[in-house]
Amino acid sequence: MDLQRGVLVVVLVMALSLEFGSAGDIVHHDNIAPKRPGCDNNFVLVKVPTWINGIETSEYVGVGARFGPTLESKERRANHTRVVLADPPDYCSPPKKNLSREVVLVQRGHCSFTTKANIAETANASAILIINYATELFKMVCEENETDLSISIPAVMLPQDAGTVLEDDLKKNITVSVQLYSPLRPLVDIAEVFLWLMAVGTILCASYWSAWTAREAALEQDKLLKDASEETVNTEGSESSGYVDINTTAAVLFVVIASCFLVMLYKLMSFWFVEVLVVLFCIGGVEGLQTCLVALLS
User: Fold this and answer.
1) Which domain does 292 fall in, by range?
2) By three-state DSSP, how is residue 60 classified?
3) Residue 298 and residue 296: Cα distance in Å, rounded?
4) Where is the signal peptide (predicted)?
5) For 272-278, what is the mean pLDDT?
6) What CATH number does residue 138 fall under?
7) Are both 161 and 41 inside the same structural domain?
């Protein structure tokens, strides 16, 4: 009965992991930021591979805006487009020259995001990249009093470090081009399955080691009993167990906890959680090493 319950729990954890991983786009849902017609996109992560003088170099990650059209999800279908600097840099006033369907690189600030996007669209840009003034990404939303939300070009925010690199290259008259696409998350994320298999594999290996050690100890004990030597009596009183007895409930509990930790690590990706996990694994590794040494020395 315990085994059946354990299998059911493990299958449930696996199903929940797949459910969390099958969210379509790499989406960040936000119920706080204002949402209305023309400004109701989900905040999706956007990949921005770059080419310098025709040679592919770095790939940056941005975030899509609440407004504008959705981006292409396939890299092979994304347009390979040249990037130009905005003039004026903030695009809060009419540009000094029109563009030829390039991607315009704009500084954040001095006016709303939708104002920048509308000006970029008027200047015949194919997309707008907005450089944040911090290393983090910021959610681009619409102001409450804005009405001109019929924006037909995508808007993507880049972190400050990525935007600065592109800006410096453009100021040196280097040809820079990019692709903008927001990849879909696969129905079954291979990374999550691999992490889950690591947890299951760990408990299986531990169980095998425990069973093998117990068998060796039993054979040795049986041999000593058959010899009927006095050493057997002393061994019975002083011998310490060199294996860990793991029952079904403990094994299932370990798999469930390990699966939850790995899923949380994959989903949260936060620095503090990684630090906690490293400490826990170090403690577990020391305990495991101690157990192995005791078993070998015994």
Assistant:
1) 2-21+187-297
2) strand
3) 5
4) 1-23
5) 70
6) 3.50.30.30
7) yes
